[in-house]
């Protein structure tokens, strides 16, 4: 480690001197990482001592006893999608395309989160004991389908983590001079510690803490940017960006302006982004784990609130900080002055760090360093717990030890956490030395993440999809997408290389083919020989762990009820399903169709007053997101916090602790009784 007095050294692949020393980088990545890990480990032990949340039990470790409330669910949803690339990438496309870039980035993030509320509530209704998506696939399609989905989900997790680590490591290196490989390997260390000990509840708690810190810093920049005399107001920022547009017009934008939604490059990125993100969400078993962990009445509101609140982060932060970079590039405050940012710096996601340095100097650099670290470790935690669930439940428990008890599964969950943390660092290192950067992965990842979208949705929502269609369609879809992607790169640029395959058009064609062709394959194959799956068959197999003694029991004593109670709960869940479907359609139409497309077609260039309103609304939305992610979980979970406080004061654990029931809506739309957490029909 470099001493605290060491001067920062230039980074070989960067063109500016890092504003912070290497010592600061190691303190944040190593020391703060360990401190957070230790705090979270102590909190999980406190929860066990006071309210009986025992992480040595599989149901608690993997699903938090399916009792997480709406506030913490919403915060976890925001955090799961708050990748370091959400902030670095939204600023990147804002710098490249202007106002259209961050809006398309945000519009490509919220619809699939809200749509996931529909999938989540359907899973809660049809297979309440499940821990992972892959258990659902195995029950419906057998071993062959199970293996195909294991491969698809692991590919999704691997490419997602590589995208995070490449962007975060490059930013940390540019800010501190820390060696990029050291950053890549050290970032997962703290995550491995607290995830392996605390399980999914530790992930929820760290999600909450990290998201709160990130949003506080993001909101700080929305204030700080307008306090420097070079910017001072939205109107002055508008003038600076208009001047930048005259000096450096954007190819493909109307009149070359940054102040327009009519941007060919931005809308092509928007198509890639929304399809790729549907794949990243639906094929990420971590989102299913969090849905299974939520209380039944918390799934739909948690995902809807979290998805809509999240929209503001890439929109507000990406717009503001990319425009700060554009406006101040010709000012001595900007770190690259007197030159513009190079294509390499832009593609490495350094627009946000450089803008922060211009606005707040070393304090800005420290803020970006901290939120980059927080974002990548929080989302990496979700990915690690996702992969560990695949290794423990879907590989070990299914194919190596079907009589596995709590201790066995927890041990292999720990193995999965450590293995994937190390593997992700090694894989990201290989990509780095292969000259792959954030920009390349941001554009091409949809080719690999999208083939399972429609087969997975059909698995949960369409009883007719046949086993043959489910197994063949994603494999054919991935082959189609890769062939179109590589073929387009060769057709347009005459070669297949990292540079050509990272261009916009090959990635658009490849992603669209990869996402949509499996729907066609599945529907055609199913129509030839349709299935008629009975949803009740999902509940025939016992999946939940009651205790080490009754793992082999035929029926669950935790999730068990009679037929009349099941019918009543089914009606309530169907009501939540209708709400989820309505909000899913409304979010997609609002964020991706009714708002941006008319503005694209109008060829409108923002006036000063319109831009001021645009940026002010984005900032207000961001501050509301801060409240939802930071304070709503505290308000919503005040009953359990009070239980913990009373237990600490009395020195006695809470007797038979149960989560405080939330008010929920019955099928008539009024206040109803709590949805029964037990959800297994007796045979």
From TrEMBL:
<feature type="transmembrane region" description="Helical">
    <location>
        <begin position="412"/>
        <end position="434"/>
    </location>
</feature>
<feature type="transmembrane region" description="Helical">
    <location>
        <begin position="172"/>
        <end position="194"/>
    </location>
</feature>
<dbReference type="GO" id="GO:0005886">
    <property type="term" value="C:plasma membrane"/>
</dbReference>
<feature type="transmembrane region" description="Helical">
    <location>
        <begin position="144"/>
        <end position="166"/>
    </location>
</feature>
<feature type="transmembrane region" description="Helical">
    <location>
        <begin position="609"/>
        <end position="635"/>
    </location>
</feature>
<feature type="transmembrane region" description="Helical">
    <location>
        <begin position="67"/>
        <end position="83"/>
    </location>
</feature>
<feature type="transmembrane region" description="Helical">
    <location>
        <begin position="23"/>
        <end position="46"/>
    </location>
</feature>
<dbReference type="InterPro" id="IPR031155">
    <property type="entry name" value="DUR"/>
</dbReference>
<keyword id="KW-0812">Transmembrane</keyword>
<dbReference type="GO" id="GO:0015204">
    <property type="term" value="F:urea transmembrane transporter activity"/>
</dbReference>
<feature type="transmembrane region" description="Helical">
    <location>
        <begin position="579"/>
        <end position="597"/>
    </location>
</feature>
<feature type="transmembrane region" description="Helical">
    <location>
        <begin position="303"/>
        <end position="328"/>
    </location>
</feature>
<comment type="similarity">
    <text>Belongs to the sodium:solute symporter (SSF) (TC 2.A.21) family.</text>
</comment>
<feature type="transmembrane region" description="Helical">
    <location>
        <begin position="380"/>
        <end position="400"/>
    </location>
</feature>
<feature type="transmembrane region" description="Helical">
    <location>
        <begin position="508"/>
        <end position="528"/>
    </location>
</feature>
<keyword id="KW-1133">Transmembrane helix</keyword>
<feature type="region of interest" description="Disordered">
    <location>
        <begin position="652"/>
        <end position="672"/>
    </location>
</feature>
<keyword id="KW-0472">Membrane</keyword>
<dbReference type="InterPro" id="IPR001734">
    <property type="entry name" value="Na/solute_symporter"/>
</dbReference>
<protein>
    <recommendedName>
        <fullName>Urea active transporter 1</fullName>
    </recommendedName>
</protein>
<dbReference type="InterPro" id="IPR038377">
    <property type="entry name" value="Na/Glc_symporter_sf"/>
</dbReference>
<feature type="transmembrane region" description="Helical">
    <location>
        <begin position="468"/>
        <end position="488"/>
    </location>
</feature>
<feature type="transmembrane region" description="Helical">
    <location>
        <begin position="103"/>
        <end position="123"/>
    </location>
</feature>
<feature type="transmembrane region" description="Helical">
    <location>
        <begin position="265"/>
        <end position="283"/>
    </location>
</feature>
<dbReference type="Pfam" id="PF00474">
    <property type="entry name" value="SSF"/>
</dbReference>
<feature type="transmembrane region" description="Helical">
    <location>
        <begin position="440"/>
        <end position="461"/>
    </location>
</feature>
